[in-house]
Amino acid sequence: MKIGSFDTNISGVFIIAELSANHNGSLDTALETIKAAKRAGADAIKLQTYTADTLTIDCDKDDFIIKSGSIWDGQSYYNLYQSAFTPWEWHQALFEEAQKQGLICFSSPFDKTAVDFLETLNVPAYKIASFEITDIPLIEYVASKGKPVIISTGIATEEDITLALEACKRMGNHDIALLKCTSSYPAPIEEANMIMVKDMAERFDVITGLSDHTMGATVPVVATCFGAKIIEKHFILDRSIGGPDASFSMNEQEFTDMVKAVREAEKAIGVVDYTLTDKQAKGKDFSRSLYVVKDIKAGETITEENARSIRPGYGLHPKYFNIVIGKKLTKDVKRGDRLTLDIITN
């Protein structure tokens, strides 16, 4: 998948710093967060494009009060989103700062008006948030723009995922990635279920990745080892500034450490290759081979007392041990000489 200038087939794991609500109502904080994300090693910064009115209605009925066991329980949906949204008039400045920093910038739209607005900013890709995976009309509209679509699966059943993929493909868009996500904030590590990264790639024939709400770098590293091509983490300048997403967001040092760990994991995975590097081949010096351990005269028999499999590895391969035992030598050999087939006879 190619997102802007980043190609996951060439450049490795695409690491996204999710700004979300971590500007805490300040454009300056948002701009500084973008700079910090660059310093921390992110490849991209992601926004969320909505208003409280595009997501819900201002209503005090019980249905509209959050009570799902989340960190936001007790608030109304409207008040939460009113406090968390990124003003649309900031977007231009944020996109410009990202470009200045060499970061790819894109967003999660939450309705068609957000898509239309983001199109004016020439976004290189779209992200479908976990809670929007069932909004098939929105997914179709996003996919119709012909840009890569990254879909989080935090609340998705297998059927939900299938319907979302079919919606993209109906629009002629096959440039799709699925992100394994656990929609808990923060998410318990035992619920990460990273084997799904590999399974979804095989089951749905798309590239996969991780949208992570656990604390720390362990889950992103495991995801990388299971083939993740995209990793997204919430990013904040400092959790002490507060905000709706602060408690499960990484600060600059934590994100930097995560990026380092992911990049090292990528190197460690390597490729399937049974040939040895020069250094590995040199290590065979420490393997075993067949050596004479007691002087043997020509015509005498090789026995387990005068020949053994020992280090170093310059002599005859140990696979010949049972073959040479009982055979005779054609010449005198001394303790410490290598056994070789050309001096052995029946």
Can you walk through the features of this model?
With 346 residues, this protein is an alpha/beta fold. The chain has two domains: 9-50 and 85-269, Alpha-Beta Barrel (TIM Barrel); 278-345, Alpha-Beta Complex (Type Iii Antifreeze Protein Isoform Hplc 12), CATH 3.90.1210. It has 13 helices and 14 strands. The strands form four sheets. An eight-stranded parallel β-sheet has the order 5-4-3-10-9-8-7-6. α7 links the parallel β6 (126-128) and β7 (149-152). α7 runs parallel beside α8 (158-170). The protein starts with a strand and ends with a strand.
Quick rundown:
This protein is of the alpha/beta class and 346 residues long.
Core attributes:
single chain, 346 residues, alpha/beta, TIM Barrel, Type Iii Antifreeze Protein Isoform Hplc 12, two-stranded antiparallel sheet, elongated
The number of distinct β-strands equals 14
Order of strands across the widest beta sheet?
5-4-3-10-9-8-7-6
Helix content: 25-40%
Provide the domain count: 2
What CATH architecture of the largest domain do you see? Answer: Alpha-Beta Barrel
CATH topology of the largest domain: TIM Barrel
Strand percentage lies at 15-25%
How far is the first residue's CA from the last residue's CA?
A: 64 Å
Q: Which CATH class of the largest domain?
A: Alpha Beta
Mean pLDDT: 96
* SSE order: EEHEHEHHHEHEHEHEHEHEHHEEHEE
Task: Label the structural class.
Answer: alpha/beta
Rg over C-alpha atoms, rounded to the nearest angstrom: 30 Å
- Low-confidence runs of at least 5 consecutive residues: none
Tell the overall outline.
Answer: elongated
**Sheet with most strands:** 8 strands, parallel
Q: Report the total helices.
A: 13
